[in-house]
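Title: Prediction job returns without error message
Component: structure pipeline
Severity: low
Priority: P3
Assignee: unassigned

Description:
Job completed but the reporter wants confirmation the result is attached to the right record. Sequence as submitted:
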Amino acid sequence: MSGDRYPHHARDMAWPELRESAGTSIAVLPIGAMEPHGPHLPLASDTLISEYFARELADRVRAYVLPSLGYGVSTPPFRLGGHFPGVFAMSGTTFTALVEDLLRGIHEHGTRDIVIVNSAIDNTSFLYEAARRHHQRVPDSRIMLVSWWDVVGEEFRDALAEETGVSRHDDHHAAMVESSLVAHMAPETVRLETVQGSGEHATRRIAYHMLPLPEECGTESGVVYRADKADAEIGARVAAQVTRNLVQAVREEFGPEGEER
């Protein structure tokens, strides 16, 4: 096996390998986004995270990984910490239709069981709609839609907040946990030195949508709201926790198809 070829990745398979995998395995579809993640993380952070967990899952259960969908729907500015360059997004209608077409293609190749791994919160309702439509059309299909934060565990997150002194109220987009994950998964893409030494807070926080976004609700860098305690070691622990819980959930929901490799 040469270079970065990944044994369970559909992009690296010839058609006989795909035919065999499609008939006996779960299909894993990573979903991400292209959007600003502060001055220290790459625009494709969500995609990197989804791809990582998709690979980890396919290493542990009978599954193959499809090429990721690296564009999502637009995240509201209050969740991005304001308006920054780098948002490349689709309309919800286009995104839903595209995902539904991908699910249809997966089924036509002989796979009825699908895990959608998502890392961008505003994709979620559109992914659910695509999955619902697919299941309505193909009743024998089984689809798990999971975002990494769904399976990290409440006790684990609470303990991490207590340990680091970064409250969960301050740990959202491009903040400590997400920054730590990317620092662990793709360290060559991260510039943690740009956010070390200080936390960031908007003058006013809101939990609803307001157009246009009030100026005092934005941040200077797009970190919502603290990444100064991020490091790769925290990311490794979070990644291990998510992977364990994700694998357990897949085995529970898919039975024999989720058996260990």
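Comment from assignee: result matches the submitted record. Residues 232-254 form the longest helix (23 residues).
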